[in-house]
Write a structure and sequence with these properties.
Blueprint: H1 2-11, E1 16-18, E2 23-24, H2 34-44, E3 51-53, H3 56-59, E4 63-64, H4 66-76, E5 83-87, H5 88-91, H6 103-106, E6 108-112, E7 123-124, E8 132-137, H7 146-154, H8 165-173
Parallel strand pairs: 1-3, 2-4, 5-6, 6-8
Antiparallel strand pairs: 7-8
């Protein structure tokens, strides 16, 4: 939510599409059901007026690739300027993504770091991969992670300080993340 709020403010976004992944090609564990991920997004982002929860990836068959989603959005909104919002952990692996070199042609990449110890973000890559120009999003330190939240739930530790109350209640009601994945 902090990333969404920072992006809307700093990038002056008219709309912010929150897009839960469909079939995550890069995850080695099963994801919670798409209906749960969509509803948690609706609950979490309901206070951000410009946020739109978009189910396009959860409806797509096969692996979900960012480049395909951006191309889909481009057909829906041909005159829009797109930004791809990433955490720094994701940005560090961007060169490994499916058809990664096409992504900067479809969207400006905006990166939020998890801590204040990271210097200005200008490019990511390695000597074997193309570099991607990136715009930095200023964020307060955010030590939380989805892995931490799932671990807390599995170990019966409160997540009240990690997620908003409606999402915590939804997770408890539907008994999500109770077993190791």
């Amino acid at each position: 939510m902090a990333l969404a709020q920072a992006a809307v403010q700093q990038l002056q976004l008219d709309a912010l599409h929150i897009i839960p992944t469909g079939h995550a090609w890069h995850k080695d564990r099963p994801l919670s059901d798409a209906k749960h991920r969509l509803e948690m997004c609706r609950l979490a982002f309901s206070d951000i007026a410009s946020a739109v929860v978009n189910d396009c990836e959860t409806l797509r068959l096969g692996p979900s690739y960012t480049v395909d989603t951006l191309m889909h959005l481009r057909t829906q909104f041909p005159k829009a300027q797109f930004f791809l919002l990433l955490g720094q952990d994701q940005a560090m692996h961007l060169s490994d993504w499916h058809r990664a070199k096409e992504i900067p042609q479809l969207a400006i990449i905006a990166v939020a770091s998890r801590s204040t110890s990271v210097g200005a973000v200008s490019a990511v890559g390695s000597e074997n991969n193309a570099l991607f120009a990136m715009q930095r999003l200023e964020m307060p330190p955010m030590p939380q992670s989805s892995t931490q939240i799932r671990s807390c739930v599995q170990n019966n530790i409160s997540i009240d300080s990690l997620v908003c109350e409606p999402v915590a209640r939804y997770i408890a009601h539907h008994q999500l993340y109770r077993t190791a994945r």
